[in-house]
Design brief:
It contains eight helices and 13 strands. The strands form four sheets. It has a five-stranded parallel beta sheet with strand order 2-1-3-6-7, sandwiched between helices. The protein has a four-stranded antiparallel beta sheet with strand order 8-9-10-11, covered by helices on one side. A two-stranded antiparallel ribbon has the order 4-5. The chain is globular, with a radius of gyration of 18 Å. By secondary structure, it is of the alpha/beta class.
């Protein structure tokens, strides 16, 4: 998954980025509302983590701008404000959830997973398609009686494919969802990860097809 973190406390931001990236997520970080709006206009994100108190204004302004553009990306607010009225106003503005600082990173991760499930319309983390069960939390595929542990980038590509079967994903789109703006990686890396996933799916009813000049699609028998 690709996250946008909007947070001006660099110690906290670095800790969140490190934790999320260790789980295989891609994280872009903005420390101002102006930069966050620019990121959100040119990038596509699965989830946004939003601080309220920012150097160039209130995070609510970003939230208003984001929802005014009819963006449905889940937004979890990181706030030091504990008053009920503050939390209600954030939810009324379009926040999907909030976490009060200081927070435990495990709780933040759990709330992220819950927000992503709600946004995709599922209540459970495990996705079953044909004879394959995918568990993004455990980072594994179950094909028949075999459980395969996926590497981080394999995991994130397969997560995209299985959540939209029959949809063709271009190499550029997969690249944009897998890497942040700071990563110095060639698009050819996508071919490597697709090749690994195809090997994992051998013997299953799922396969990844290549569509020349278009991209890749997850198919099932």
């Amino acid at each position: 998954m690709k996250f946008l973190l909007i947070e001006d406390n660099y110690e906290l931001a670095n800790a969140i980025c490190a934790r999320m990236r260790s789980d295989g997520h891609v994280v872009d970080h903005a420390d101002k509302i102006f930069d966050a709006i620019e990121y959100s206009q040119i990038g596509e994100y699965d989830l946004i983590l939003l601080d309220v108190m920012l150097p160039d204004g209130d995070g609510r302004e970003f939230l208003k701008h984001h929802r005014a553009r009819n963006r449905s990306t889940p937004v979890i607010v990181l706030t030091a404000r504990s008053q009920v009225s503050d939390r209600i106003s954030l939810l009324d503005l379009g926040a999907d959830d909030y976490v009060t600082k200081p927070f435990d990173h495990a709780e933040l991760e759990a709330r992220c997973r819950a927000a992503l499930r709600r946004n995709s319309g599922t209540s459970q983390s495990i996705t079953v398609l044909a004879d394959v069960a995918f568990d993004p939390v455990a980072g594994s595929l179950k094909v028949g009686d075999s459980t395969i542990k996926l590497r981080n980038k394999e995991l994130r590509i397969f997560e995209l494919l299985i959540n939209a079967p029959q949809q063709i994903f271009s190499k550029q789109k997969l690249f944009d969802r897998l890497f942040s703006y700071d990563d110095d990686v060639s698009e050819n890396a996508i071919e490597v990860y697709i090749g690994r996933l195809r090997k994992h799916l051998v013997g299953s009813q799922l396969s990844i097809s290549t569509h020349r000049s278009l991209g890749y699609r997850l198919d099932h028998d």
